[in-house]
Design brief:
Layout: H1 2-27, H2 31-71, H3 76-161, H4 183-200, H5 213-222, H6 226-242, H7 247-263, H8 268-287, H9 290-303
Helix pairs in contact: 1-3, 2-3, 3-8, 4-6, 5-6, 7-8, 7-9, 8-9
Length: 305
């Protein structure tokens, strides 16, 4: 899982380099586009000046028409000139609109080319961030592997000293005369078992081969088989009583957790939490603080759900 993450990150970095090379080719403005932009600006300014001139002439003719009309004179020639000027003004507006559209298009193109520089800076920042994350990830991998090697050596040494596993001897409760156990008695034993598990910080997988006892007890209760339920509940209590939170217990529980962590598919933040927690467990195990190590294992099991 970690190897895949590294390959994906490398692929992203290579992809970024490829984009950067293309961006460099686009970063320099196109000389032809710059020249065309300059020509369009000059053309637009000339059209604006011509339009203003025509509008000025049209305004003068309008004033002359008013004066002639006031004296009762003939304004037909003046009206004809005004109409011609207005036609020219409309043509100028069309030319201005077309020129402005062309200018907007080429300006957008040049602006986009200039934006490549900004994008390149962002790509560079992203490459630096990826490199930093990869360095941190590699360092964390090395620390985790070394911690596992140290723990393996400690466990080997502890086993050589003479650590042995706990053997649970089940003592089946003798049946009452007439097998007349009650639901209350079964519930009482089951409650005692759960209380002891909570006090010791045990989870169901810690019970090993007896992990299915609670389910069997529940089934017996649903069938109103109080005798069978009582016997099973008594076995559960004895199993829990026999478990000691010691070096061998933590070793076995850690190995079960490590298998889960290795197979887990989690996000980077959760993976970091798991790696840090595993190292903390090994530290507490080495210090002989088995109660704290057990609590930390339970917490990491919770993170994997």
């Amino acid at each position: 899982m970690r190897t895949v993450g590294i390959l994906v990150s490398v692929a992203l970095m290579l992809g970024s380099f490829g984009c950067k090379n293309n961006g460099e080719a686009e970063a320099a403005p196109d000389p032809a586009a710059v020249k065309a932009q300059q020509e369009l600006v000059a053309r637009r300014d000339a059209l604006l000046a011509q339009k203003e001139k025509l509008q000025g002439e049209a305004t003068k003719i309008s004033e002359e028409i008013k004066k002639v009309e006031a004296t009762g004179g003939d304004t037909s020639e003046l009206a004809k000139k005004k109409a011609e000027l207005e036609t020219q003004i409309v043509q100028q507006d069309d030319n201005l609109s077309s020129t402005s559209s062309e200018l907007t298009a080429i300006t957008s193109k040049l602006d986009a080319a200039g934006g490549v520089v900004v994008r390149e800076a962002r790509v560079a920042d992203r490459e630096k961030a990826i490199a930093a994350r990869e360095a941190q990830f590699s360092q964390r991998e090395r620390e985790f592997q070394q911690a596992q090697l140290n723990a393996a050596k400690q466990w080997k040494d502890s086993c050589a000293v003479g650590g042995t596993s706990t053997t649970v001897i089940q003592q089946v409760a003798p049946p009452k005369s007439g097998n007349n156990y009650t639901r209350k008695e079964v519930d009482g034993l089951l409650g005692k078992a759960k209380s002891q598990m909570a006090k010791k910080g045990l989870i169901n997988s810690d019970l090993g081969a007896q992990a299915s006892l609670e389910g069997e007890i529940t089934k017996a209760l649903s069938e109103s088989d109080w005798t069978r339920g009582y016997i099973l509940a008594n076995q559960l209590v004895q199993t829990i009583d026999a478990i000691q939170i010691n070096r061998n217990f933590i070793k076995a529980k850690y190995e079960r957790l490590n298998s889960r962590v290795s197979a887990a598919k989690v996000d980077e933040a959760t993976q970091g939490q798991l790696d840090s927690g595993m190292k903390e467990i090994m530290q507490k195990w080495g210090d002989g603080d088995f109660i704290a190590a057990n609590k930390r294992i339970n917490a990491l099991y919770g993170a994997l759900r």
